Amino acid sequence: MSGMNRQEFLRTATLASAVAMTGAAKNLSAQNTAPAKPCDLVAVMGGEPVAMFEAAIKEVGGMERFVKKGQKVTIKPNIGWDRKPELAANTSPELIAAIVKACLAAGASQVTVFDHTCDEWKKCYATSGIPEAAEAAGAKVMPGNDESYYREVDIPQGKSLKKAMVHQAILDSDVWINVPVLKHHGGANISCAMKNLMGIVLDR
What we know:
Helix 3 links the parallel strand 1 (72-77) and strand 2.
């Protein structure tokens, strides 16, 4: 991956997903005292998405811990469905705007937001409210619907899958942040961070 090795790539993806979604590490409530040093994994339960994000990113040491001055950042929300924000099929647009602002405040030179949608991409983008919120916060929004946005990469130590077509926004970024939606899934039982990665490749 551009700008980082495989281990750093996986660590960044894992930590960023933990910031954006709930996990099983720690319940941050008003009664809890702050840890002596930043955590690697936190869970914030109860509240609105932006407030929970702000509490979580503070506990892990601030966005500056992950995003350095001049770096290019890609944010990968779930924009997969032609559904309004209140139905929670996609990532909260307010949450994406808050993450964009935090990245820019940390010194990011560019923040890109995209998804390879399941429903028709223009409808998904428009109905989700994410592009409007992301652009208002200072991000660049890219589609993921066409093969021209993807480049073939090797998969080190792949057993069955040796290569994949990955979106250029991911490959050209120094940091990327996975922002899924935690919800029920008919096949996997739960849809979260790994499921959201289906939107970074051309052939799902």
